[in-house]
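Lab meeting tomorrow. Please check the following:
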Amino acid sequence: MSNVETEPVELKCGARTDAGEPTDTASRVDVLAARDVPLGGPRAMRVRRTLPQRARTLIGAWCFADHYGPVEVATGHSMDVAPHPHTGLQTVSWLFSGEIEHRDSLGTHALIRPGEMNLMTGGHGIAHSEVSTPATTVLHGVQLWVALPGEHRSTERDFQHHVPESVRVDGAEIRVFLGELAGTVSPVRTFTPLLGAEIVLAPGASVGLTVDTAFEHGLLVDSGDVRLSGTLLRPAELGYVPTGAAALTLVNESQDPARTVLLGGPPFEEEIIMWWNFIGRSHEDIVRARADWEASSDRFGQVEGYPGSRLPAPALPNAVLTPRRNPPRG
């Protein structure tokens, strides 16, 4: 998925608990609000973006989270993202409903379906397109990015597909697509330790999950009102929990099932620059990647089979791009 924003934007962020006051560090939950963003041109589908923002650039190596739908394709809200480039990252596509056709410059031609994860690695450079299929009536899901660590940020292109099994724990249905949770381990290869899981809670369900104390975590709520370790999260909000928590408690306070996506990983200590679809470490990294894309360099390869032109890169800002990292941990 292409990121149409090229400048950082400040989003609302605050800590919220039952008592209205922050708790101890291990159980503190910061509530990150989403912002509506148009995805790709005048017929853009709108998405809700919770990462990155000024208050928090990353959760572990997770550096980007777009949440979209449910939208009716018949009303003109289809997805049609022309070939575009990526560097320095991995993309994780996860659908709740609908079907998306993926093509990339590795020659991959794959479908993204609910409950099936597609992970694409664009280290030195890759290009891909994403188009919702004619079989799609309702489009709904998340698009996530993972920053590659410095030693691997120029790695070769790669594509992995995984269908995680569903496990049930105390009224929760869990699908672990990356990392380990609830006794389930994903076989998918990553370059830093990560956790990614869809958790669907039955009405009124409460579940306690043992997690790695070295990880920070983010819980994105898709539907329902969910209390995370005592803090209420509403749809489209993301609750951030810093390192030190040995367990997370999720409670569905809704009368219907609640769907969430749990992300986690050890703090990513490197500073990064995110601009358009590129992740680098310096202004020069971004300038070079943009120039290579505009010159149709072999760095990104060609996407075969897409019926249209590729996306041109936006103009660079009239300023030097500077690295960003998370605020100091307290």
Notes: Confidence is low (pLDDT under 50) at residues 6-26. The chain has one helix and 27 strands. Residues 100 and 195 are 23 Å apart (CA to CA).
